[in-house]
Write a structure and sequence with these properties.
mainly alpha; two-stranded antiparallel sheet; 15 helices; 3% strand
Length: 362
């Protein structure tokens, strides 16, 4: 998780990151001998070539909190440094292991080709744009690759492959990541469908940190975040509040249940759907069976709230799901929060296709 190496002052813990890469790469190498494989052929090849797949997640979040638009030269240079450091450190350790354990069985017949590939990697690290890359990260990446090439020429490599950029889908959530693999955020507010039914609301928690990095104060950050993700409560909500719902005939326990559900809702109407409000309550409030069985049923219109009132309350509780139009947000900072998709029903911005391709190249 790349965010674990970002310090409070915004700098990147280079030594901690290099150390973590070595620890996990060594652990993966040990596992080759203990792993089980689906076929005998795969097992034999895995032992002969010992390919590993060290990787990272949360790049999109790291770039956002650094105040770097995902589709920018600065972001690509930053990502290139972090990735080159990881891969260079892994191959340097692979060569160190080869010094004591011997290179992988298929190394001898691939030696010249592999050493040439390693040199190309080193040259790629040296070609990272000095003007847009943090100097300490670029210097560290080159140093890792200098060692990887020098040690490899002497000892060979224990592993034919060291790293892979995996999607890290569900496991990324368990790792406390807002973004997966090398991808930008899908959207600032998104929903994940659960295998057992229902949905899980995922809100990007990095927006306030990014805004601080860009120089906004806490009241400004609160207003922008409230615009994007809403309050998640009925307190101070226009039109639809606890007292107005009570006046419409809902009991305190029923309002409590609705209130508890609000932080997980994409739309306020869903908190007043059948199931969220029991059939017993809907019958007491005078709603017919035919009405409540209609697709997209919500009790709010039947309680006497107009479409305009519901929209206004929905914007307050659930937010607009985008920072576009947020009070006080400077236009030149919008690109920092661009995602793979348009954010929310009112969002217009998204990362263009070549933005993804250029980042993969970097």
């Amino acid at each position: 998780n790349l965010m674990k190496f970002r310090r409070e002052d915004g700098s990147f813990d280079v030594e901690g990151y290099r150390h973590a890469n070595r620890v996990f790469f060594l652990a993966q190498e040990i596992l080759v001998g203990f792993a089980s494989y689906p076929t005998e052929h795969i097992a034999r090849r895995s032992v002969e070539f010992r390919p590993l797949g060290l990787g990272y997640a949360n790049l999109g979040t790291l770039l956002m909190v650094q105040g770097l638009p995902y589709d920018s030269d600065a972001a690509r240079s930053y990502a290139a440094c972090v990735t080159a450091m990881m891969t260079g450190e892994a191959y340097a350790l692979s060569a160190e292991m080869a010094a004591s354990k011997g290179p992988f069985a298929g190394y001898a017949e691939n030696r010249d080709s592999m050493l040439e590939v390693m040199r190309l990697h080193r040259e790629a690290a040296k070609s990272i744009d000095l003007a847009s890359a943090p100097r300490d990260l670029r210097d560290a990446a080159i140093e890792c690759w200098d060692r990887a090439v020098a040690y490899g020429a002497l000892h060979g490599y224990r592993n034919s492959q060291a790293t892979v950029l995996a999607p890290t889908g569900t496991i990324g959530l368990l790792m406390d990541c807002d973004t997966t693999g090398v991808e930008p955020d899908f959207a600032l507010v998104k929903f994940k469908k659960l295998a057992g039914g229902g949905y899980f609301k995922i809100v990007n928690q990095s927006v306030p940190a990014a805004l601080r990095r860009l120089g906004y104060d806490e009241p400004q950050i609160a207003r922008i975040a409230r615009h994007a993700i809403g309050t998640g409560t009925l307190e101070n909500t226009p039109h639809i509040q606890r007292h107005s719902l009570h006046a419409k005939g809902l009991h305190e326990s029923e309002i409590d249940r609705i209130e508890k559900s609000l932080p997980t809702m994409l739309d306020l109407r869903a908190a007043f759907a059948r199931g969220m409000i029991s059939d017993e309550t809907l019958t007491r409030l005078g709603m017919t069976q035919a009405e409540r069985e209609k697709p997209g049923f919500s009790a709010l219109p039947f309680l006497g709230f107009t479409d305009a009132q519901i929209e206004e309350a929905n914007a307050a509780v659930c937010g607009s799901q985008t920072v576009e139009g947020a009070p006080g947000l400077k236009t030149e900072h919008l690109s920092v929060f661009d995602c793979a998709n348009r954010c929310g029903p009112r969002g217009t911005r998204f990362i263009q296709p070549m933005g993804h391709v250029r980042m993969m190249a970097a």
